[in-house]
Structure formats: structure tokens, C-alpha cells
């Protein structure tokens, strides 16, 4: 597992090395998980799956992911050897 060193609202943001395209991240914490497609390179991140987060929290996560989009897209490319 690869965590990208970003925590948002107490959540771990994870990119799995054996995961599939499109570029996406998993937001995990508080017994919930959400998956956001990053839509690299310009975003905005788009919710793909939600397991338990309230709508308001999902909105905050998406906004925070957008502020880190460049870093997240670069990390996805590094982990998945996409250049």
C-alpha cells in the first residue's frame, strides 16, 4: 500500500500500487471509504464510490483533494510508472 503523505480531515489518502486506471485515490477513515477519480491533470476530482461518508464531508474531501491535485497526480504517475 502507498499512502501519499496527505491527510485530509483526519482521513488517510491512499493510492494502491496494484490498482487500475483511471488515476484515483481512496479516502479512508472513521469506518468509511470514498474513491475519487482525480481527472489528471486539471481535475476537479470526481466522486466514484462512497461507503458511509455524509454528503457535506464528501464535498470537503473533494475540495481538499483539488488543492493537492498536482501532488496526487504526480504520485499516481510515479507509482504506476506513467510518464
Would you mind describing this structure in some detail?
The chain has helices spanning 55-67, 69-79; strands at residues 2-8, 11-15, 24-29, 32-37, 46-51. With 83 residues, the protein is α+β, with helices and mostly antiparallel strands. It has one domain. Strands 1-2-3-4-5 form a five-stranded antiparallel β-sheet, covered by helices on one side. The longest helix is centred in the C-terminal third of the chain and has 13 residues, at 55-67. It starts with a strand and ends with a helix.
Labels describing this entry:
five-stranded antiparallel β-sheet; 5 strands; about 80 residues; alpha+beta
Helix-strand makeup class? alpha+beta
Outline = globular
Strand content: 35-45%
Number of helices: 2
Contiguous uncertain segments of 5+ residues:
none
Q: Give the % helix.
A: 25-40%
**Main sheet, how many strands, which sense, barrel?**
5 strands, antiparallel
Radius of gyration: 12 Å
| N→C terminal distance | 21 Å
Number of domains as seen in the coordinates: 1
Mean pLDDT: 92
Count of DSSP E strands? 5
**Elements, N to C (H/E):** EEEEEHH
- Spatial strand arrangement across the major sheet: 1-2-3-4-5
Outline of the structure:
The chain has 83 residues and is of the alpha+beta class.
SSE map:
Elements: E1 2-8, E2 11-15, E3 24-29, E4 32-37, E5 46-51, H1 55-67, H2 69-79
Amino acid at each position: 500500500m502507498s499512502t501519499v503523505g496527505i491527510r485530509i480531515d483526519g482521513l488517510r489518502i491512499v493510492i494502491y500500487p496494484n490498482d487500475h486506471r483511471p488515476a484515483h485515490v481512496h479516502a479512508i477513515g472513521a469506518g468509511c471509504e470514498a474513491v475519487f477519480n482525480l481527472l489528471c491533470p486539471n481535475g476537479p476530482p470526481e466522486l466514484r464510490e462512497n461507503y458511509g461518508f455524509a454528503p457535506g464531508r464528501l464535498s470537503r474531501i473533494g475540495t481538499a483533494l483539488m488543492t493537492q491535485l498536482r501532488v496526487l497526480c504526480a504520485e499516481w504517475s510515479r507509482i504506476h510508472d506513467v510518464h
